[in-house]
Amino acid sequence: xxxxxxxxxxxxxxxxxxxxxxxxxxxxxxxxxxxxxxxxxxxxxxxxxxxxxxxxxxxxxxxxxxxxxxxxxxxxxxxxxxxxxxxxxxxxxxxxxxxxxxxxxxx
Length: 107
Fold this sequence. Notes:
The protein is α+β, with helices and mostly antiparallel strands. It has one domain. Helix content is 29%, strand content 41%. It contains two helices and four strands; from the N terminus they run αββαββ. The protein has helices spanning 3-21, 62-73, and strands at residues 25-32, 43-53, 79-91, 95-106. It has a four-stranded antiparallel β-sheet, covered by helices on one side. It is rod-shaped and about 75 Å long. The chain starts with a helix and ends with a strand.
């Protein structure tokens, strides 16, 4: 086989593998909540995002960012009955996208 044919075959195999694996996505999710019906106050919702690579790194401070955003949405007043949901989307085991959704009642 000539070098040119081998290069074409490798390119074709690589492109085929990428097309075959392009739909491989894993979504993992967990939630923590213990909400009680509450009179007065209003409910606020926030979402924060971050990325990780190769399951070796994870974004720092996502929960802290969500908590700060909740407090800001409440105008600096306190919050109660905070509920959080963490989801992680894994794309081919290379890139992980983390999302935290949080909601709370403003005091």
